[in-house]
């Protein structure tokens, strides 16, 4: 028995030794497989691609903007760069190759680092993630990471585009599910699940001193604003020139409606204003309060009006039909939704500027007709009169022109295809997002024109040229191909915009290498002429004459240099073109004169217009100034004012509504000219005196700056700057909404409202706290003291009144009319052991929530245990704003 046990024991031990040896051998083999993969990768098939698109988890992490140890770019040192990383995790094992992940990164990746993956910049913002030769396939739950370097900065999460998409040879592409956006149920704001939240203190530069808009910062920023209501019954926005309250305690009830009596004016001239009153609960009725409307030739100021409200009736007299229209809009402004009464007042009013505009870019991301009609309604309500529609860009062409159907057939949609033969590349995260594409049909555009006319708004179309024209270029190349296949070369080349023999390498400001019309080809001018004729026809059909056309004329980036057509044009001594560097100016001069020859005023961005020879330009030119205040916007205005052109201020650090409301990575928008453009920032602007802003504004890094508006000369004694010509005034101001980061109608309205109402205030009214311009020239900085403490107090008091009107009278109207405005983030601070809340728009509902608690209404300071969350709600209480923690 003992001998048997010994033999058994020996056998067991031998078995264990054998298993141990085999195990070690297997571990060694596995280790070798890990370091030198022998897995055979097969080309991805459609089923695998679809499955990977559904299950692959993508994450994007921003690491820093202030990296100084940056890789070289094209052999040159990069002093500062953004560093981030993109990771990819598959829940399943997938041994496949021949795939690409395509994604949009606005600022191009110029260097990357990864063991198994590579990133390449394609065009515009499009990039591709590709497997390297040593790619070992996707392993279950194994994360593959690519570190990236960008020679720019990323500050807001909205700069990161959604809808990464998978593609493979001869396969149908598919959007990766984890990179799609969702909506937060309480705020209706976009959620980006693939973006790891940015550090709230992420800096754009080592010298960046901007303060994150925390709950505490906001509380202190709003500390000088109180909730007041005494002035609300008598308030009109924009603020009228003169308003007299006749009997402060007495009111005229209009609960029974209004009964309109017309004199020298037809109902159609004011019908849109009457409809607004009806939407706000005051309808026409035979039993209503008499409302007398008439033209008064004694009123000499165009668009001016007189409004009289007595105990029994109302009268609106206008210098013209537009004046009468605005008088009725002022009745709607006096109205509070909570009660159908009006104060007894006498109002005399007229606009400060003849040009009061709002621009909207529908080309980068399309915004539908319904949203444009809502915008027109609100523009008219606040007496804005110019709608600048940016209808064509690199990413899309958004208006149907009967003569050139390819413009919308090709340029009106994006798809997951890089060829541009059937549709446009899906730039700006446009893959699979058909709701962000489309165009206005002929009927749509005519409807918009008619609606604008009824609201006394002039539509100014813009089809940017010669840069920003990729959609047009690709559409005309498709047209060329169609006619060439029919062996019709004459028609094929009639409207061609590109020289196929041009080998010029250039990179536009948006990183395209093929987005600039060739200005040396006669077919390019034939195209412009055809576009203009179609536009003129559409406006004529709508009985809304095309009075101004905006040619764009900005941001061309070294195109044409190697184009045979351009070299031939410059070599031809029978024309005035003798410098290839000034071909852009030649295009602008020629097109501007084409436009004016058709009886239309011409507009353009100041940088392109500034390159032209004023003697070669028409006289009726509108120059839109888009230089930032710290960068010399005052110099641009002075230079172009001396050309005797109309000046429209489009200053980005004040009027670009695609910039964030405040310094917070959660706030949507670009940031290249300002980190904060809130409604108060717009309200505080003095359009007639740009240099004065150096006393109280800061640059993009949060630093004060100096503006020297005195006469200046260079080393040769040549004048480089001088103050504005004596008595010169700008023609007006305009708000801009560029749509690179604006991907829906609600996002567009969030960015526009309520800032547009502050824009309207500055465009219409003349406040007593404005500092007149010094035509002798002056140097301004934070200590120059021209904007006195007394004037500052007067301004801040007016802002308090204005912000209360916004919150308590105007935002409820936007709610009632279905306009999606921004609900401000709430400020919060612990004072004497109690929670205090406030808002930049006082009177909106405020709420707080303890940890694991429910949201509670805030009425007065309350004792809490930190941390808590705080937020505002919309005026009607139905929608929450973003919440902020207080710790």
SS class: alpha/beta
Which strand order spans the largest sheet, edge to edge or round the barrel? Answer: 22-23-24-25-26-27-28-32
Strand content: 15-25%
Q: Rounded to an integer, what's the Rg over CA atoms? A: 31 Å
Q: Count the beta strands.
A: 39
Percent of residues in helices: 25-40%
Quaternary form: single chain
Output mean pLDDT. 94
Shape: globular
Q: What can be said about the biggest beta sheet?
A: 8 strands, parallel, barrel
pLDDT below 50 for ≥5 consecutive residues: which ranges?
Answer: 1-36
The N- to C-terminal Cα distance equals 76 Å
* Number of alpha- plus pi-helical segments: 20
Can you describe what's shown?
The chain is of the alpha/beta class. It contains 20 helices and 39 strands. The strands form 11 sheets. The protein has an 8-stranded parallel beta barrel with strand order 22-23-24-25-26-27-28-32, surrounded by 5 helices. Strands 14-21-18-19-17-16 form a 6-stranded mixed β-sheet, covered by helices on one side. Strands 7-8-5-10-11 form a 5-stranded antiparallel β-sheet, covered by helices on one side. The radius of gyration is 31 Å and the shape is globular. 48% of the residues are buried.
Short description:
This protein has 887 residues and is α/β, with parallel strands linked by helices.
Topology:
Blueprint: H1 2-35, E1 42-43, H2 46-55, E2 57-67, E3 81-89, E4 96-97, E5 99-104, E6 109-113, E7 117-123, E8 126-131, E9 143-150, E10 165-168, E11 174-175, E12 182-183, E13 190-191, H3 215-221, E14 242-245, E15 251-253, E16 258-263, H4 271-279, E17 289-295, E18 305-309, E19 314-318, H5 321-334, E20 341-343, E21 345-349, E22 355-361, H6 369-381, E23 386-392, H7 406-409, H8 442-454, E24 458-465, H9 470-485, H10 489-492, H11 522-541, E25 548-552, H12 564-571, H13 583-597, E26 601-605, H14 606-609, E27 621-625, H15 633-641, E28 646-649, H16 652-655, H17 679-683, E29 707-708, E30 712-713, E31 719-721, E32 732-737, H18 745-752, H19 755-764, E33 779-780, H20 789-816, E34 827-831, E35 834-838, E36 846-850, E37 856-857, E38 868-872, E39 884-886
Helix pairs in contact: 4-5, 6-8
């Amino acid at each position: 028995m003992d001998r048997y046990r010994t033999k058994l024991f020996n056998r067991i031990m031998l078995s264990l030794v054998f298993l141990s040896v085999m195990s070690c051998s297997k571990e060694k083999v596995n280790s070798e497989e890990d370091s030198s993969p022998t897995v055979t990768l097969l080309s991805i098939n459609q089923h695998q691609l679809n499955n990977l698109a559904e299950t692959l988890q993508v994450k994007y992490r921003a690491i820093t903007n202030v990296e100084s140890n940056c890789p070289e770019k094209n052999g040159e040192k990069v002093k500062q760069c953004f560093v981030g990383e993109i990771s990819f995790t598959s829940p399943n094992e997938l041994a496949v190759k021949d795939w690409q992940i395509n994604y949009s990164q606005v600022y191009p990746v110029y260097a990357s680092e990864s063991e198994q993956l590579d990133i390449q910049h394609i065009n515009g913002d499009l990039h591709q993630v590709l497997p390297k030769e040593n790619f070992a396939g996707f392993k279950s739950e194994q994360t593959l990471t690519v570190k990236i370097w960008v020679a720019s900065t990323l500050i807001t999460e909205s700069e990161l585009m959604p809808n990464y998409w998978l593609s493979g040879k001869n396969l149908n592409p598919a959007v990766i599910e984890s990179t799609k956006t969702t909506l937060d149920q309480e705020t209706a704001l976009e959620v980006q699940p693939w973006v790891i939240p940015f550090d709230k203190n992420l800096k754009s530069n080592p010298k960046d001193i901007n303060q994150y808009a925390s709950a505490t910062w906001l509380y202190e920023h709003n500390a000088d604003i109180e909730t007041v209501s005494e002035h609300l019954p008598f308030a009109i926005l924009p603020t009228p020139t003169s308003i007299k309250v006749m009997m402060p305690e007495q009111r005229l009830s209009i609960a029974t409606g209004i009964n309109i009596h017309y004199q020298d004016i037809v109902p159609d001239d004011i019908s849109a204003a009457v409809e607004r009153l009806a939407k706000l609960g005051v309808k026409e009725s035979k039993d209503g309060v008499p409302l007398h409307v008439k033209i008064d030739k004694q009123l000499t100021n165009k668009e001016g009006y007189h409004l009289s409200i007595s105990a029994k009736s109302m009268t609106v007299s206008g210098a013209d039909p537009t004046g009468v229209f605005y008088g009725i809009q002022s009745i709607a402004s006096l109205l509070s939704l909570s009660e159908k009464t009006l104060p007894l007042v006498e109002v005399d009013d007229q606009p400060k500027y003849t040009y009061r505009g709002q621009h909207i870019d529908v080309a980068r991301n399309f915004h539908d007709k319904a949203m444009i009609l809502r915008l027109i309604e609100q523009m008219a309500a606040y007496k804005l009169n110019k709608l600048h529609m940016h209808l064509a860009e690199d990413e899309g062409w958004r208006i149907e022109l009967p003569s050139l159907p390819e413009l919308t057939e090709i340029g009106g949609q994006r798809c997951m295809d890089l060829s541009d033969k059937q549709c446009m590349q899906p730039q700006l995260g446009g893959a699979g997002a058909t709701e962000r594409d489309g165009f206005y049909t002929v009927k749509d555009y005519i409807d918009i024109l008619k609606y604008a006319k009824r609201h006394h708004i002039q539509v100014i179309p813009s089809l940017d040229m010669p840069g920003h024209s990729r959609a047009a270029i690709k559409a005309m190349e498709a047209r060329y191909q169609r006619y060439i296949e029919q062996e019709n070369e004459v028609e094929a080349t009639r409207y061609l915009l590109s020289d196929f023999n041009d080998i010029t390498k250039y990179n536009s400001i948006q990183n395209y290498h093929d987005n600039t019309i060739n200005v040396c080809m006669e077919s390019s001018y034939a195209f412009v002429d055809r576009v203009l004729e179609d536009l003129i026809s559409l406006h004529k059909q709508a009985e809304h004459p095309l009075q101004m056309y905006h040619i764009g004329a900005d941001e061309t980036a070294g195109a044409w240099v190697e184009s045979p057509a351009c070299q031939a044009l410059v070599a031809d001594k029978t024309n005035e073109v003798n410098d290839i560097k000034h071909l852009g100016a030649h295009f602008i001069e020629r097109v501007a004169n084409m436009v004016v020859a058709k009886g239309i005023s011409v507009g353009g961005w100041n940088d392109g217009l500034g390159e032209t020879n004023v003697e070669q330009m028409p006289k009726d030119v509108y120059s839109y100034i888009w230089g930032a205040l710290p960068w010399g916007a005052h110099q641009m205005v002075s230079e172009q004012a001396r050309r005797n052109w109309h000046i429209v201020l489009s200053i980005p650090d004040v009027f670009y509504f695609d910039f964030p409301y405040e310094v917070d990575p959660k706030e949507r928008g670009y940031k290249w000219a300002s980190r904060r453009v809130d409604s108060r920032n717009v309200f505080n602007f003095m359009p007639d005196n740009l240099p004065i802003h150096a006393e109280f504004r800061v640059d993009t890094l949060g630093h004060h700056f100096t503006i020297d508006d005195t006469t200046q000369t260079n080393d040769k004694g040549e004048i480089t700057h001088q103050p504005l010509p004596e008595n010169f005034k700008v023609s007006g101001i305009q708000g801009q909404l560029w749509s690179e980061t604006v991907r829906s109608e609600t996002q567009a309205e969030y960015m526009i409202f309520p800032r547009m109402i502050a824009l309207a205030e500055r465009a219409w009214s003349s406040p007593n706290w404005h500092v007149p311009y010094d035509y002798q020239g002056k140097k301004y900085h934070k200590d120059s003291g021209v904007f006195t403490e007394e004037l500052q107090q007067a301004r801040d008091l007016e802002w308090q009144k204005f912000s209360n009107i916004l919150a308590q009278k105007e935002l409820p109207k936007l709610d009632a009319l279905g306009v999606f405005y921004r609900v401000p983030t709430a400020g919060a601070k612990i004072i004497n052991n109690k929670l205090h809340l406030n808002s930049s728009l006082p009177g909106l509902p405020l709420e707080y929530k303890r940890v694991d608690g429910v949201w509670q209404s805030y009425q007065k300071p309350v004792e809490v245990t930190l941390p808590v969350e705080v937020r505002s709600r919309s005026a009607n209480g139905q929608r929450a704003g973003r919440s902020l923690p207080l710790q």
